[in-house]
Amino acid sequence: MRVVAGWSESAWKSLAIKSLRLGWPEGLRQAERRLSPSMMRSTLIVSLFEDVFPPTLELRAAVDELERHEWDALCARETHHGRGYTDAFCDLADEAVAAAENPQRMMREARRLRLPFLPPRTWNVFWTWQKIAPADAGVRRELDAAPWTGMPAAVVDAHTFEGARRRAGYTILSGDYATHRQIGARVAAEGWEPLRAEVHAGLAEPTPQRQLRLDLGDG
Predict the structure, then answer these.
(1) Is residue 139 part of a domain?
(2) Considering the domain boundaries, does residue 141 fall inside one?
(3) pTM, whole model, 2 decimals?
(4) How many CB atoms sit inside 10 A of residue 98's CB?
(5) Within 13 Å and on the Cβ side, how many CA atoms surround 137?
(6) C-alpha–C-alpha distance, residues 70 and 74, integer Å
(7) pLDDT tens by residue, 11-35
(8) Cβ atoms 183, 129 nearer than 8 A
(9) How many domains does the chain have?
C-alpha cells in the first residue's frame, strides 16, 4: 500500500468518493494529485452510480465529465440524496446485492450502454440505477466551494487504512445504506450546506509515517 502526503492510498480514494458525494471539486482535485488516473477513474465510476445516480438521458454526459476530469460539472449534478430517490435506492439493497452475484449480466448491460469497465464494487449500485431508471433530467446543486485545509475527519472512516486502525467506524459521509438514508433525510430537510459545514469543521490527523511503515511491516 502506498502512502502519499501522510495518508494511505485508501484515504485518498475515500476523499475522491466523499468529495463527489458532497459536491466538493477541490477535494477531487486533491485526490487526483495523489491517485493514478486509472485508480481515480475506477473509484469514481462507482460513485457515479452510488451517488450521482444520473438520469438515464444524462448518463453519457456524466460519464464524459468523469473521463475529462470536469469536476465542477460532475459535482454540480444533484445526487439521489437531493432528488428524492434515496429511500428507493436503499429499499432495493438486498435485491441489488443478489443481482450483483451475476457479473455476466452486469458486464453485458455495461457494454450495451457503452460504459467503461465496471469494477465489481459497482455492480449492485449499477443494478439499482437500472432498476429505478431515474428520469429527472437537469437537476443541479450549488458547488461546495470550501478550500482545502486538510483531510476531513469524515473521510477517514472504516473503509480507510487509518480509520480501520483507529476503529473509526462509519462517519456522516460513509457509503453504507443507513448513512445514505441519513444524508438523504438531511438534504431534504436542510439542503447541503449544514452537512458540508459539519464535514469541513472537523479535520483528521494523519498517522505518523513511521507508524504507517510499522503497521505495514516495512519498519
Answers:
(1) no
(2) no
(3) 0.91
(4) 11
(5) 7
(6) 6
(7) 999 999 999 999 999 999 999 999 9
(8) no
(9) 1
Q: Is residue 204 part of a domain?
A: yes
| Parent domain of 82 | 3-133+148-215
> Are 184 and 86 a contacting pair, CB within 8 Å?
yes
Q: Which of 127, 121, 123, 160 is nearest to 18 (CA)?
A: 160
- 7 forms beta bridges with 4
> Which grid cell sits at 81?
440524496
Alpha helix segments (H runs only) across the chain = 9-22, 25-34, 37-47, 59-67, 71-75, 86-91, 93-99, 103-112, 123-132, 161-165, 177-190, 193-201, 209-215
Cα(107)–Cα(141) distance, integer angstroms: 31
Task: Kindly report the backbone phi and psi dihedral angles of residue 65, in degrees, each rounded to the nearest multiple of 5, phi listed first.
Answer: -60, -40
User: How distant is the alpha carbon of residue 135 from its chain centre?
Assistant: 21
Question: Residue 12 in contact with residue 31, Cβ under 8 Å?
Answer: yes
Instruction: Work out the pLDDT band at 58, boundaries 50, 70, 90.
Output: very high
Closest by CA position to 175, among listed 43, 5, 32, 75:
43
